[in-house]
TrEMBL record:
Arf-GAP domain segment(s): 1-118
Matches recorded under CDD domains: ArfGap_ADAP, PH1_ADAP, PH2_ADAP
Pfam family, one: PH
GO molecular function: GTPase activator activity; phosphatidylinositol bisphosphate binding; phosphatidylinositol-3,4,5-trisphosphate binding; zinc ion binding
Protein name: ArfGAP with dual PH domains 1
Record-linked PANTHER family: ARF-GAP WITH DUAL PH DOMAIN-CONTAINING PROTEIN 1 (PTHR46021:SF5), ARF-GAP WITH DUAL PH DOMAIN-CONTAINING PROTEIN 1-LIKE PROTEIN (PTHR46021)
Compartments, as annotated in UniProt: Cytoplasm
Residue ranges of every copy of the PH domain listed in the record: 121-222, 244-348
Matching Gene3D superfamilies: Arf GTPase activating protein, Pleckstrin-homology domain (PH domain)/Phosphotyrosine-binding domain (PTB)
Keywords: Cytoplasm, GTPase activation, Metal-binding, Repeat, Zinc, Zinc-finger
Source species of the chain: Pleuronectes platessa (European plaice)
An annotated GO cellular component: plasma membrane
Length: 366
């Protein structure tokens, strides 16, 4: 079995790409990591897994694994994966990896296009549990995704004619947030309204439904971006479909005059937008800071100015922008280092043409 691991394709988990898989499915003929082997156990009727190290392997099983393997399985089960379809990596949440495994081997969605209808039809309608803005209660809401109209919308009453919110697909993002939302199927959808970020938190009891919604949103974004950027290659378009946040967590902040006491807030760094919230599940950001590039006058200091007062946490960060300095305090040195790293990464990256327009908006914000 050890020799088989050296064959091309078998050195990474067939489902999430993690290095050095130590498990294998002897009915599907794939080598997988320990975490994905646990997900294969959920589809025991078609996949049976064993440890390469701890379990005995018969010679006929070894022969089968030799004749199959990860590359052969990929050629069979991933024949026609749509470009927009999210293929999870090891660090992605359990739900995304589980549904990817079920889609491939159980539902065989990538062996015939008809099975891809739920996310590739360009229209999707259904009910999701949506977190209420004011009371935090989850209520069933009808959602409609329409590629033709270029929108995702939801309705507060089942028979309502007018949607409660219309989210333009060109500003929509979706990211799974099981820990923050507190449910394994929790999806955070964001969109821009008057250039400010709005959050919508949803889930569906059925994990497949939730991931189908996610991929339907990606499909709609993909088709929109193909029209908006007709000459851009897939390698440029695909990372734009949905994005995870660079970093989230608590820091303390003070106001523009730097005289008011620091307050603890939840921060999200989404590309070049640093947003802060009183509660991580707030519908609106209390404020947003644009983080530009060093060529445009943005820089970073691992400290607060010497005369600063009113903070409780000891590990300071100053973001210098052409307009003003933003002061933050982190609870631990590790958190300070992690934030510094992500801010520096953004500042080191030159600005794209479309990002100048966003910066200009922030500069003239009332
Ligand atoms: Zn894996």
């Amino acid at each position: 079995m050890n020799q088989l691991l050296g064959k091309p394709g078998n050195g990474e988990c067939a489902d999430c790409g993690a290095a050095d898989p130590e498990w294998a499915s002897y009915t599907l003929g794939v080598f997988v990591c320990q975490s994905c082997s646990g997900l294969h156990r959920n589809i025991a009727q078609i996949s049976k897994v064993k440890s390469l190290l701890l379990d005995p392997w018969s010679s006929s099983e070894v022969e089968f694994m030799d004749s199959a393997g990860n590359n052969a399985a990929k050629a069979k089960y991933e024949q026609i994966v749509p470009a927009f379809f999210y293929q999870p990596k090891h660090k992605d949440c359990m739900l995304l990896r589980e549904q990817w495994i079920r889609a491939k081997y159980e539902r065989k969605e990538f062996m015939s296009v008809e099975r891809q209808e739920p996310y590739s039809a360009g229209y999707r309608e259904g009910f999701l549990w949506k977190r209420g803005r004011d009371n935090g209660q989850y209520l069933s809401r009808k959602f409609i995704l329409s590629e033709r109209e270029g929108v995702l919308k939801y309705f507060n009453k089942h028979d309502a004619r007018e949607p409660k919110a219309i989210m333009k697909i060109n500003t929509v993002n979706a990211t799974f947030q099981p820990t923050k939302i507190g449910t394994p199927h929790g999806l955070q959808i964001t969109y821009l309204k008057d250039n400010s970020t709005r959050n919508v938190f949803v889930y569906h009891e059925d994990g497949r439904e939730m991931v189908d919604w996610f991929n339907a949103i990606r499909a709609a974004r993909f088709h929109y971006l193909q029209v908006a950027f007709p000459v851009s290659p897939l390698s440029v378009l695909l990372p734009m479909l949905t994005r995870n946040y660079a970093r989230e967590g608590y820091m303390e902040k003070t106001g523009p005059k730097h005289t008011e006491g620091f307050k603890k807030r939840w921060f999200t760094l989404d590309d070049r937008r640093l947003m802060y919230f009183k509660d991580p599940l707030d519908a609106y950001a209390r404020g947003e800071v644009f983080v530009g590039s060093k060529e445009n006058g943005y820089s970073l200091l691992p400290e607060l100015p010497a005369n600063t007062q009113g903070y409780h946490w000891q590990f300071g960060i100053t973001i210098v922008t052409p307009e003003r300095n933003f002061l933050f305090a982190c609870e631990t040195e590790e958190s300070q280092n992690d934030w510094m790293f992500e801010f520096q990464t953004v500042i080191n990256r030159p600005m794209l043409p479309q990002e100048y327009a966003v910066e200009a908006y922030f500069k003239h914000k009332p």
